[in-house]
Amino acid sequence: MTDGAAPRFDLRWVLRGVLSLGLAGALLGFVLPRVTGTRWSEIADVVARLSATDVAVLAAVWAAGIWTYGFVITASMPGMRHAQAMTVNVTSSAVSNLVPFGGALGLATTFAMARSWGFTSGAVALSALVTGIWNVFAKLALPMLGLLALALAPATSASWLVRPAAIGAVLLAVALTVLVGTLWSEDVARATGRVVEKVGQAALRLAGSSRVLTWDRAVPRWRQRVIGLVRGGWPTLSLGLVGFLGTQAVLLYLILTMLGSDLGPAQVFAGFAFGRLLTTIVVTPGGTGFTETGTAGLLVAFGGDPAVCTSAVLLFSGFVVFLEIPVGGLGYLVWLTRRSWRRPVP
Known about the structure:
By secondary structure, the protein is mostly helical. It has one domain (53-337). Helices cover 77% and strands 0% of the residues. The protein has helices spanning 11-36, 40-47, 52-76, 82-98, 103-116, 121-152, 162-184, 186-206, 215-258, 265-278, 290-301, 306-322, 324-337. α10 packs antiparallel against α11. The longest helix is centred in the C-terminal third of the chain and has 44 residues, at 215-258. The radius of gyration is 21 Å and the shape is globular. 38% of the residues are buried.
């Protein structure tokens, strides 16, 4: 597209969006109740058990998670205030959760907000890269921690989870090896760049894009910047992400407990861990439909009441996915009106 030209309407993206939302609706409306063996009338009866006080407590735990993740952003983008980090987090998350493959739009939102506060595009890109790496490793590690929790829990049989956990362990080991090798050696960084470029180029061709990637040169160039940022900020990055995921796990456990579930912390954490891994399925916004079906099905397999587990998982998604949409709208208003935060880009 040339400068000054109007954006080109692409019907394919509209069709993909409609299909993606339709898939999410079908998974939630039809597949989820059948996988867990419950009915929507039973789910409504269980949800009605929550009192206003319960909802307030759950909202406070959810807000604590948002506050905790602010440390991940401030550590990856030195100079950003915690309030700014929370604002950009909820706003970009709301955009990402609204549309299929919304990660790109969420990242564009982050760029726009951070640049208005004086951060360069390079700083924002570096932050997105580092936080993305941390999040991927966390989602790969969670299933192994969930399996370990089940193994340590009394009277719990989880032998059928050994295979998926082993697959996750292999993926995590490969990812760690690639990351350490890329940061350790510039030659490995070049090789990683070439492989990633070929995979990305193939994905772009499938998406019908003619864009040409140059990641074989970009990876070595970004290597030193990542090392410089991670060298001093990795403790805050790691602790912030652990705190964020921990509050989310507590949120799911509290919901289940308030609804009358007798599942133990180990079973709940295992369900939560595998559910977070399913959020990487970007076919639907935030993995909606896949995540709820997989998590609820796993909790029921652990012996949980079908109606209670399904209701709890839906309520959990209501907080961590759908509540972020209106809160993200408020974050957008804060960004528009808080002129004192505005700074020119150096």
